[in-house]
């Protein structure tokens, strides 16, 4: 007895409620098919979990005609043979050979413009089969050629960190239930989480806050790998990494393979933390974060990983402690390193604007371009710098009422230049003497 094809076996199992019946009552077939289509299935070779009613109906009639063997996939009788007219085939192949990077849609549009085929009369599948038959579907060097990916791992802890954001649960914030976002950083070599926190958003400010806590606890990574999202592209984050001596690296768009370990952390987090979390116990965002940090330190960091040869992330991280780049002297001015620096032009009244407020700076900077230094987390303005980072003075909130009685600094009037008797006459004096003549000199 020959072996049953796995696809046929799966389809037969889906039809179980139908094939086990000797006779179906009127209307029972459609009702049963509708019920089967509403179920979820583990479909071999597919990411989908549902099967359409028409598909199930086709399987049923195929089984009626030929039994279980009829449920196996059968190759097309015309496989590898194009049904397109010879002149259309020749035009397609010529267009592809002229420019190997032309896509199927580009070829279809080109042939429509040339009048070779009518509009929307050339199926994509027919063009693809023809190109594949002639070995032109993936020419060498084309964008469709598969890219080589290899598994890699940093040699030491602290060499590479990954950063990413995951959508989290809804928690009470400002009197309403709002979605929280999990911002996480992971060390590549040890799988340790330098810091992770639920934030009210997924912007640059949220990411910078997590990075600040991470470097405080686990030192500075050599490289920080992030995606191409606008939050990670923020100039503020780029400036912070530059001041900390961290090389910021961006993954190429639609290439998530570079952060596979972090994606694995997200799956673990969903399975072990979110699935066990009781939302009824969460009072606010800080309450949720307290539970997160306890779970990371007590559970995740102390659980053995297969990828770490049975060691825990904490054990693997401690192995490389002598190599970790600490903050050193930067620790004393860490807050300053995370300040935002914003370009501003000083008004003629010696003020600059920030978040709807006005701040006074040294009056001699009027009409000049300066860099405003602010703490983005508190909204406090600390001062102004030049483009090279040199301090130019303080920036204080404008008090227009107090300025009424404030003594103004006035420049000293210029001293008149002493004019010697031998000094040359100016244009006005020359005109005066020429008009009145020498009589004026006699009267003088």
What tags apply to this protein structure?
single chain, 444 residues, alpha+beta, Nucleotidyltransferase, domain 5, four-stranded antiparallel β-sheet
Protein model, in words:
It is a single chain. A hairpin with a 2-residue loop joins β1 and β2 (176-187). 34% of the residues lie in helices and 16% in strands. The strands form 3 sheets. Strands 3-2-1-4-5 form a 5-stranded mixed β-sheet, sandwiched between helices. Strands 6-9-10-11 form a 4-stranded antiparallel β-sheet. The mean pLDDT is 83. The chain is of the alpha+beta class and 444 residues long. It has 15 helices and 12 strands. It is extended, with a radius of gyration of 37 Å. The chain folds into 4 domains: 6-71, no CATH class; 86-133, Arc Repressor Mutant, subunit A, CATH 1.10.10; 160-322, Nucleotidyltransferase, domain 5 (2-Layer Sandwich), CATH 3.30.420; 339-404, OB fold (Dihydrolipoamide Acetyltransferase, E2P) (Beta Barrel). The termini are far apart. α5 (86-98) packs across α6 (104-113).
């Amino acid at each position: 007895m020959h072996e049953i094809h796995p696809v046929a076996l799966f389809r037969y199992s889906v039809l179980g409620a139908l094939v086990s019946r000797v006779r179906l009552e009127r209307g029972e077939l459609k009702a049963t098919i509708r019920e089967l289509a509403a179920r979820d299935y583990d479909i071999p070779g597919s990411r989908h979990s549902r099967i359409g009613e028409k598909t199930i109906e086709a399987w049923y009639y195929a089984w009626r005609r030929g039994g279980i063997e009829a449920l196996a996939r059968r190759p097309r009788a015309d496989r590898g043979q194009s049904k397109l007219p010879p002149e259309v085939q020749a035009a397609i192949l010529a267009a592809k050979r002229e420019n190997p990077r032309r896509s199927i849609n580009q070829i279809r549009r080109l042939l429509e413009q040339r009048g070779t085929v009518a509009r929307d009369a050339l199926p994509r599948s027919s063009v693809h089969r023809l190109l594949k038959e002639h070995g032109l579907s993936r020419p060498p060097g084309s964008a469709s050629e598969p890219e080589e990916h290899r598994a890699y791992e940093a040699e030491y802890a602290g060499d590479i960190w990954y950063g990413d954001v995951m959508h989290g649960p809804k928690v009470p914030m400002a009197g309403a239930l709002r979605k929280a976002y999990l911002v996480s950083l992971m060390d590549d070599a040890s799988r340790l989480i330098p810091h992770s926190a639920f934030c009210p958003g997924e912007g640059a400010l949220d990411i910078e806050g997590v990075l600040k806590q991470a470097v405080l606890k686990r030192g500075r990574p050599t490289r920080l790998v992030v995606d191409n999202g606008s939050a990670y592209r923020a100039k503020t984050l780029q400036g912070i990494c530059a001041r900390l001596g961290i090389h910021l690296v961006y993954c190429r768009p639609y290439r998530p393979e570079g952060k596979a370990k972090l994606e694995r952390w997200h799956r673990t987090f969903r399975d072990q933390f979110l699935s066990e979390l009781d939302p009824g116990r969460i009072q606010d965002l800080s309450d949720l974060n307290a539970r997160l940090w306890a779970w990371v330190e007590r559970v995740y960091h102390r659980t053995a990983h297969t990828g770490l040869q049975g060691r825990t992330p904490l054990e693997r991280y401690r192995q490389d402690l002598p190599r970790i780049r600490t903050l050193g002297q930067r620790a004393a001015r860490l807050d300053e390193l995370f300040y935002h620096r914003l370009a501003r032009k000083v008004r003629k009244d010696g003020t600059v604007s920030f978040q709807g407020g006005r701040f006074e700076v040294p009056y001699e900077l009027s009409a000049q371009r300066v860099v405003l230094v602010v703490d983005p987390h508190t909204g406090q303005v600390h001062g102004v710098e030049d483009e090279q980072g040199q301090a130019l003075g303080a920036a204080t909130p404008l008090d227009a009422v107090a300025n009424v009685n404030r003594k103004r600094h006035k420049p000293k009037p210029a001293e008149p230049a002493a004019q010697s008797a031998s000094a040359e006459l100016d244009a006005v004096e020359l005109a005066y003497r020429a008009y009145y003549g020498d009589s004026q000199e006699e009267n003088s």
